[in-house]
Amino acid sequence: MHVSLNDRPQPDTLLVEIARYVLHTEITSEQAWTTAHYCLLDSIGCALEALSYPACTKLLGPIVPGTIVPNGTRIPGTNYVLDPVQAAFTLGSMIRWLDYNDTWLAAEWGHPSDNLGGILAVADWLSRTAQAQSKPPLRMHDVLDAMIRAHEIQGVLALENAFNRVGLDHVILVKLATTAVTGKLLGLTESELVNAISHVFLDGHPLRTYRHAPNTGSRKSWAAGDATARGLRLALIARTGEMGYPGVITTPQWGFQDAVMHGQPLKLARPFGSYVMENVLFKISYPAEFHAQTAVEAAMQLHQQLKQMGKTAEDIAHIRIRTHQAALRIIDKKGPLHNPADRDHCLQYMIAIPLIFGRLTAADYEDEVAADPRIDILRGKMTTEEEPQFTRDYYDPEKRSIANALTLTLNDGTVLPEVVVEYPIGHKRRRAEGIPLLIEKFKRHLSHRFAEKQQQQILAHSLNLKQLIEMPVHEWVDLFVV
Q1: What 3-state class would DSSP assign to 203?
Q2: CA distance 172 to 421
Q3: What is the pTM of this model?
Q4: Comparing C-alpha atoms, which of 80, 105, 99, 100 is closest to residue 90?
């Protein structure tokens, strides 16, 4: 007769390592703090820009209209005052909506600044609550510290754990990272934080099907908001003293590794520190899925070449695309494209737009632009193939390139020299070139939402890191209220 042993196990090692990193490791890297500062500005800018899109704004705000929340979280660019969990969903969805915030690429993909939804939501609420009780509010230092740690947890676990291989979406890592770092902001003890993190692995997790043909849709734009809100909710549950599940990852048959990962162990590729924030990829020039960023840059160069030759995209007979394996898996797409989410995950569409128009903006994914028949005609002239060296360089920790190469053959038989772009402008190797443009991107997004006086107030309190980190969280957020 089979008898199951009921000895309560010690907490799984990964649960403990995450908790101890969050609570006890000091972040000393100046580069990490500087990059987190830029990441904060860029993420808030992306969130503000998303407010121009009704498909996004219809999802935002209180679940019950008119809800009053004492000391509630304020949402930048709006007049919403929300409970912190709904605020995390709202802000997280805004940040991710346009596919324009930062990116991390490895065995798993993702956008670590998605965690800012939960981080800023709970920090603002805690700061306002402390102020109301005549206690010291949280400072923006606390927000940036949490961002660095959330980036690290999500990014390090993405290095060698391919959740996509079992059909799960990368937002599982947003939920994990948000739970951990908001737990710290909420004052959880180490054992309470271990309990909170264990609940992440107990949860059901979204399937990637909303990111891939033939089902690509707008849930991919609010999935991160959902995940960061759930992470904060789990941390709040743990704060009540709710029990955890110490063997949730490794227990045979019923644990996460056996039940979800088909027996594959979760791997920690490197110790937690500040590596991910230091090396994160910014989307600076184009709101496009990151595996296509270099292809868009190449297409923009070719558009200029055609223009100088007195030719247009209609003179193109064929486009050869050499790319890396991840791009082929995620964004190589033929056939009809049904919605903006479908289009911004189509490599061919993201190449066609700059070749035709010499630009790629968020508006170019909308139905009005997509109705132009030249786009699908040009997509039909494209062929894709893997370049094995590009794939090797993509996974090489010393390079982490995201290369694409385009060759145009014209109707008259002319073959233009291949344009190869290995590193997008948001890559660490092009940081010096990219940061001034990142600041301009932030200013541009502010200008679309606020009057000149309010823009200048925001910039005066935001661009200097040493000044920003000392600022109470709620005072900084109030700068963005309309």
Answers
A1: coil
A2: 31
A3: 0.92
A4: 80
